[in-house]
User: Fold this.
Amino acid sequence: MTVARRLIVNADDFGLSAGIDRGVADAHEHGVVTSASLMVGWPSAPSAVASAKRWEGFSIGLHVDLGEWAYRDGVWRPTYARVPFGDADAIAAEIDAQLNAFVDLVGRQPTHLDSHQHVHRKEPVRHLMLERAERLGIPARELVGGVRYCGTFYGLHSDGSPNPEAISYDGFLDAVRTLPDKMIEVCCHPAAEVDFESTYSVERLYELRTLCDPCLGAALSESGFTLASFHDLGGETGPV
Assistant:
């Protein structure tokens, strides 16, 4: 007998652009996306929140945005930075400002925390995010919350070269079927239009096609998955 598992399909970069927001909307309304992480500092964020408030059970977390880096000539180079990355006090203040902006936009605390380009995996961001997640009693990706994170549904290799197989229909299923955990988060980046500057651009269009594949939901169900959101954690905020 297959053990029932819950699957959160979380769209990062919500609020970054109108094209991304339409992609998230399509992937939720016609696909398997159940949650999103909001970038509060971009002009599209208010309209993104207005759309999401219509979706019953949809969870919205904070996608902490401290900057972006692009892989060029064998080196990761910054394209923008909101704060000096080595200044812990400035980073703490920026995270708190974004948390406050989130509450102003959404009307409540985020259901979860993560960060743009996973900058919270390293110090000094790591402990600052963990402190805030524990204070709020919410999950922080790969740090606390009891949710197994799966980031392999992504169309580029670590050196920036294309990896289209990873964002295919089979790539999505392969990413989750081998994970034994009862609560899994798959990260995605859908977009309906490339109206933004990013090293990850056209891949988002392909992600959207996969996420809206009419066969995907049935295949997940047959594999023992029930689609869920961070609202379904029920206060479970133990270690990852």
Observations:
- The CA atoms of residues 132 and 138 lie 9 Å apart.
